[in-house]
Design a protein that fits this description.
The chain has 5 helices and 12 strands. With 211 residues, it is an alpha+beta fold. The protein has a domain at 150-207. The strands form 3 sheets. Strands 1-2-3-5-4 form a 5-stranded antiparallel sheet, covered by helices on one side. The chain is globular. The mean pLDDT is 92.
Length: 211
């Protein structure tokens, strides 16, 4: 796991994994480079993000990942800053329709998904496809296990993350010095507790430096 995380942070292509999240992340690394975005560069990266969106749309159409609509029977639940959330037709998963607004580039979004899947496999994301939003924006459609439980206690979240190498920085944000990873907004609505187990259902990772 540590080696895989190191490879993600370095911007290396991840070998031996065939899931769509990793495949698109690898293609974006190869086609656009993998330098992380610092805060002051966020707006200037918008052109790169648009180029990546066109690249992804073409890829999705070629690989039959382009969706005209969500799966029939999907039930709208709620929405947050970047995702509209639906109960999947099997009622065992949720569908997140995400515009990656929190990320400067689509590569950063997919890096975050791949890191999440590595660190929190019990709530891993599966890429279903891509669709177009009402404003013409690209949106990723991902599937995640539906977890029923209670909002986690903030102290338990903090203890868990510190035990796993993330230092608390401010509010509900954390930083991993070894890998240069920021993990933001780990409040109690983004982590569910069930039978003394924490399920991280909504994470935002940023790579800040190369190791």
């Amino acid at each position: 796991m540590r080696q895989k995380l190191q490879n993600i942070v370095r911007g290396d292509v991840l070998e031996g994994q065939k899931d769509h999240c990793t495949a698109i992340r690898n293609l974006l690394c190869q086609s656009f480079g993998s330098n992380p975005t610092i805060k002051k560069e966020f707006e200037s990266r918008s052109i790169v993000k648009e180029e990546q969106a066109r690249f992804i749309k073409a890829y999705a159409e070629d690989k039959r990942l382009w969706m005209q609509s969500l799966p029939a029977g999907s039930q709208y639940l709620t929405e947050g800053g970047e995702s509209k959330i639906y109960l999947a037709p099997d009622q065992l998963h949720v569908i997140k329709n995400n515009d990656a607004v929190y990320y400067a580039t689509w590569l950063e979004y997919f890096n975050s998904l791949v890191i999440h899947n590595l660190l929190f496999p019990n709530t891993a994301y599966e890429l279903v496809g891509f669709t177009m939003g009402k404003e013409g924006e690209l949106r990723a459609v991902v599937l995640q296990r539906f977890i029923e439980g209670e909002q986690a206690d903030l102290a338990d979240i903090k203890d868990h993350l510190i035990f796993n190498g993330f230092a608390h920085t401010k509010r509900q944000d954390y930083f991993n010095t070894e890998f240069g990873l920021i993990l933001e907004d780990m409040h109690d609505e983004n982590v569910i507790a069930r039978n003394d187990v924490l399920f991280f259902i909504d994470t935002v990772f940023y790579i800040t430096e190369r190791k």
